[in-house]
Structure formats: C-alpha cells, structure tokens
Design a protein that fits this description.
CATH architecture: Sandwich
CATH superfamily: Jelly Rolls
Shape: globular
Helix content: 25-40%
Number of domains: 1
Distance between the termini: 44 Å
Order of helices and strands: EEEEEEEHHHHHEE
CATH class: Mainly Beta
Oligomer: single chain
Strand content: 15-25%
Number of helices: 5
CATH topology: Jelly Rolls
Length: 261
C-alpha cells in the first residue's frame, strides 16, 4: 500500500501559506504619505487581497519604483527582496497571504532603517522592538518605528527613481547580513511546513497512480477565528490566526522582523 510520506503535521492552509487581515495605518509620515513601515522579506513572497477601501502599495525592486493602486478585488504580490510600503487612502483593508507559514513569524522581514542602524544588530533590534500589548505606549513606539523606516526608505526610492540602484542593492545586502544567523532555524521550519506540504502532494499522487488512495480516509474540515485582533504590525493593525500547521506561535511585534505586514 502506498501512503503519504513525511512528517505527521496538522494540516496547513493550501500551500502552507500564512494568513492575516490588515487595516492599514492612517498616520502621516514625513513625506505626507499615510501608511505603514517599508520593509522587505528575504525568502517569502507576500500577497495582498483587497477586501475594502482604497490605497496603494509602493514597491522598490531592481526594475524600479512602482505605485500599485489597491481597491476592492485587487490582488498584488511581491517576491523576496522587494521593498513594499502600504499606503492608506480611504479605509484600506486587506487579507495578507504569506508564503512559508512560520518563517515570517520567525523574523523573515527587515525594515528600511538607515544604514547606520542596519549595520549594528543590537541597534536594529532596539529600533524594531515594540512594547507588548496594544496600549498608547505600543502605538507610539510603532509610529517611531514606522518613521525611522520611512527615513531610510525615501533616499532608496529617490536614488532608484534617478536610475541609481546602488543604495537599494546595498540595503538588500545589509538585510541579508542581518538575518543570516537565522537560516538554520528557518530551514527547519521550511522542511516541516511548506516542503512537507509539497511532499505530501507527491505522495498522494503516487497513491492515486497505484490505485490505493488510503489517505482519503482521513479527509476532514477545519475552521479558525482570529486569535489576536488589532495588533501593531509593520503596515497596520493586524488580526492574526493560529492556524493548523503553523510551526510557531505568532511572535510579538517586538521581535526584529516580527510578524509580517
């Protein structure tokens, strides 16, 4: 009999993606734009599915600067290494889908802080850290963190718009250096999560080809409701889920990189 191989993990969402809901910040930054903290992910693609309101996402990548409009029904996604900044215009709310559930919670994100902050891991950690909870002190710290990220972001955008990708590429390299020590732990999370989910599909195909789909006897359904509402994320207030197959509990926003979006 052919049965699916791999770790016996709780069933994740399709493709072992992460899920949250996000209401974009309406705080104006130094350039007059209301929105979140610019950042990138090192190994995870992120997608926004817009469920309400209007806004945009500003992106920086080696192919230039973009301002992607967001409205109900829009879907936008960005690959690893793309700096993204959510812009609030009128009640923007999105569902966020993250590749490799567990890795964003383990810190797969780096803010666009100025170079001198990125060069010092302890200083970066202090700048990225938020107090626990959702009180006024946490909001004030989230605003300071966002403003520091915007301070580092604006020169990157200006240089890239002028055709100079040097500062942007140096930021990517600095971000990679900052998280390099996390790679062994991230690799284990990937093996237990996204890789295991893909391998289960391969084993299921083998079982079907052999005419012995015993795994179908375990068919079932799952449901979930938010386990935390209104947490301070990188881009806005987050409703989070502890989903089946999530390899880590949601980290507090005080972790450098913290939960995404």
């Amino acid at each position: 009999m052919v049965t699916p191989a791999g770790p016996a993990l709780p069933h994740p969402l399709p493709g072992a993606v992460g899920l949250s809901h996000l209401s974009a910040y309406d705080w104006p930054a130094a350039d007059g734009v209301c929105g979140g903290s610019p950042h990138l992910h090192l190994v995870c693609t992120e997608a926004y599915v817009v469920t309400g309101g209007r806004g945009a996402v500003q992106t920086l990548s080696p192919d230039g600067c973009r301002d992607i409009p967001l409205q109900p029904g829009s879907v936008a996604w960005f690959t690893p290494g793309t700096v993204h900044r959510m812009v609030q215009r009128d009640g923007l709310r999105v569902t966020v889908l993250m590749q490799n559930s567990g890795l964003p919670e383990a810190g797969d994100a780096v803010f666009t802080f100025p170079p001198e902050v990125l060069a010092d891991p302890e200083r970066y950690r202090d700048a990225a850290t938020l107090p626990p909870g959702t009180g006024p002190g946490t909001e004030a710290a989230a605003r300071r963190r966002r403003d520091l990220a915007v301070r580092g972001y604006l020169p990157l955008r200006e240089a890239l718009a002028a055709g100079d990708d040097g500062p942007f590429r140096e930021f990517q390299r600095a971000a990679a250096r900052l998280v390099r020590h996390n790679v062994p732990a991230w690799r284990e999370l990937w093996r237990a999560g996204a890789l295991a989910a893909a391998e289960r599909t391969g084993a299921q195909l083998d079982a079907l080809a052999a005419g012995e789909p015993a795994y179908l006897a375990g068919a079932t359904a799952y449901a979930a409701t938010p386990t935390r509402r209104g947490g301070y994320g990188m881009c806005g207030l987050r409703d989070e889920y502890a989903l089946p197959g999530t390899t880590l509990p949601y980290a507090d926003e005080d972790a450098p990189g913290g939960p995404t979006a």
